Amino acid sequence: MNPDLALLQPYPFEKLRQLFAGVPPAPTLGEIKLSIGEPQHATPPFIQRALADNLAGLANYPTTQGADALRQTIAAWIARRYGVAPPDAATQVLPVNGSREALFAFAQTVIDRSGGHAKVVCPNPFYQIYEGAALLAGAQPIYLNTLPHTHFEMDWAALPESAWRDVQLVYVCSPANPTGKVMTLDSWKALFELSDRHGFVIASDECYSEIYFDEAKPPLGGLTAAAQLGRGDYRNLVMFSSLSKRSNVPGLRSGFVAGDASIVKKFLLYRTYHGSAMNPAVQAASIAAWNDEAHVRDNRRMYAEKFHEVTPLIAHHLDCRVPDAGFYLWAKTPIADTEFARELLRRKNVVVLPGSYLAREANGINPGADFIRIALVAPHEECLEAARRINDFCLSL
Questions:
Q1: Which fold has domain 45-292?
Q2: What positions does the domain Aminotransferase class I/classII large occupy (predicted)?
Q3: How far apart are CA 383 and CA 183, in angstroms?
Q4: What angle do CA 205, 209, 213 make, to 5 degrees?
Q5: Distance CA 95, CA 258 (A)
Q6: What does each C-alpha distance from 84 to 156, 224, 232, 235, 286 come to in angstroms?
Q7: Does pTM surpass 0.85?
Q8: For 196-228, what is each residue's pLDDT tens digit?
Q9: How many CB atoms lie within 10 A of CB 266?
Q10: 68-82 vs 280-290: helix crossing angle, rounded to 10
């Protein structure tokens, strides 16, 4: 067996299951599950129809590169959304089966394990796929703490120059999971300068980019930052996007990567062997989804309404605020995050995720400790009811 499998930690939701073992939830209250970032808003009917109307394509093997029409649709969407020249659909865009599998597979393409010193930088707290991808590619993860006193910004200067020399890949998540922080242009500039100096690749996870609260101010993306800083070739940068959150289709498993053509070419080679071609019916549904923004605006409106009403209720007792973007509240707890989550289930039947499960100890601290992640993905009234229960629970502490 691959010995690196022994390095993997249990996934956060496995830890949560163990934490809740033997804990009876409040018997008179229905469960409200806010622990997992699974969109619960309805899938738009036109996407469902596009999927159903193209099942004849199941009789054909799809190509790993995807249909020209899909790549061109994605390239056009990138241009509209990010205000950049359309990337070359043939060389700079590649459909993927959801951003999760692509984020993992990307490290297997990028990492050169021959020297035995490869390092991968990721934010801390973080999406655990980054860590697993690094470990199974033979690299050492380096955790860069994102903390309240720096407004959860990635502090590139916190990593000494000696450590950067062995870095081959940097994962960034903007808007961030779980804090919702959006990287600034200055932060991108500093990261690009480090990449130029040390030659590492940047994987920009932007799967939450379409959940934000001001239609006039969409979150800055990596491609936009690169273009504004004179890096129109997107050298050493690949961004990852997905329809899951944007269009409420997590089960569709559809996304894309876009950026540096030389890296996309190598990633396509890897994926040809990996067997990652997208189902033709899914490609058709994806074209329909990327071509429509009305349903995305409606989706944002529903999240904005929930955040507007829920955040003040929870902030009355727990330190939290509306994030830059995304659908998580990152709330400070007055007791240990694990105890808070366990007792909230027992007394109020509300499920949240302890922040310590999303982070690793680095520089002597676990930056997720004494925080909880609250995913406002449930229907509006359920989120409000959860906020009221959390308030009642906090009053009892």
A1: Aspartate Aminotransferase; domain 2 (3.40.640)
A2: 32-390
A3: 28
A4: 150
A5: 9
A6: 26, 6, 9, 15, 21
A7: yes
A8: 999 999 999 999 999 999 999 999 999 999 999
A9: 13
A10: 30
